[in-house]
Amino acid sequence: xxxxxxxxxxxxxxxxxxxxxxxxxxxxxxxxxxxxxxxxxxxxxxxxxxxxxxxxxxxxxxxxxxxxxxxxxxxxxxxxxxxxxxxxxxxxxxxxxxxxxxxxxxxxxxxxxxxxxxxxxxxxxxxxxxxxxxxxxxxxxxxxxxxxxxxxxxxxxxxxxxxxxxxxxxxxxxxxxxxxxxxxxxxxxxxxxxxxxxxxxxxxxxxxxxxxxxxxxxxxxxxxxxxxxxxxxxxxxxxxxxxxxxxxxxxxxxxxxxxxxxxxxxxxxxxxxxxxxxxxxxxxxxxxxxxxxxxxxxxxxxxxxxxxxxxxxxxxxxxxxxxxxxxxxxxxxxxxxxxxxxxxxxxxxxxxxxxxxxxxxxxxxxxxxxxxxxxxxxxxxxxxxxxxxxxxxxxxxxxxxxxxxxxxxxxxxxxxxxxxxxxxxxx
Length: 427
Hints:
Blueprint: H1 9-16, H2 28-49, E1 65-67, E2 71-80, E3 85-89, E4 100-101, E5 110-114, E6 125-127, E7 140-142, E8 144-148, H3 155-162, H4 164-170, E9 180-184, H5 197-207, E10 217-218, E11 228-237, H6 251-263, E12 276-281, H7 293-304, E13 308-313, H8 320-328, E14 332-336, E15 352-356, H9 365-372, E16 376-380, E17 384-385, E18 400-401, H10 404-422
Helix pairs in contact: 3-5, 7-10
């Protein structure tokens, strides 16, 4: 049996992170029972508050029940896909009929209430399977999820809504198993998973966390002309994490690595290298550049060349798989703040990350991710804006000049910390 001191801390952490046990999921019938209790209690509450001021009314949603992560659960509604309209149907004796704006819950959809519950084909409830060829307008589909994005196209913001599947799977005891899902996008833009190889590959590989027999079907990609879909029971999953902090805890990035390493046959075990593998990610174009990069890289190689091997490279033309494989074997990554650093989630624990900023735009996206991913993080924000004849409105895109001596005073301890902390169990 292999002894613990022959492994790295990173290897041990990954081995201890188990995949979700989906047999622990909640039942849909239990959700229905809680929902009906909620609707009844809401009706009683509305009768009591009917005479109060308008702003005191309707603080709770009359049709959506809040579940963990501030997501919602609802029953018996239709979803009009092109107009992003959700219509809930209620019995004629329900006295509460008014519009409700669901945007406060993370969806750019209009919500309407109707009194004609009989208009839904509830006598023909069906489940979506991988053999379902197309949706039909005379069927009420069950066990669905509707996810919302922020509507921003870059890698980080696409990762936010995709990581909701990680939240869901790693806390499956709080939720029922979904059969299928729609994506609604606040910009009404269907590019959410097709803007790049990275977005679509991260999306599809994240779904591989579900075993084949229970993997939910992506309904947006299903062919057919049915625009208004009737739904019996559904989870409404919006992005409820802070915009600059997508992971809930330290377990989730480990689970992401577990899934991606399995997808691309990357070993969880890592051995101490003779020199740390170090990358400086550079950007194409003329903005958000480190003007004296050559001087900085030269100094790093001169002073720390015996302990680390440093390369500079672009990420732009690399496939998702190439980026995951590269980051899994990288000990330290550096570069100007940018969306490419969403890839630090694939680095092994106690790897290093040095992030450079314009002095007028220190943004916490990747510092927060680094801490949740258990990286050794250094942010370098005390830089000078490089003189330029061009007017650049976005402070993030300013070119900078770094103080090489100051950076080296931070870089040398970073190299030493990664050597000691990432590989400390290896003799």
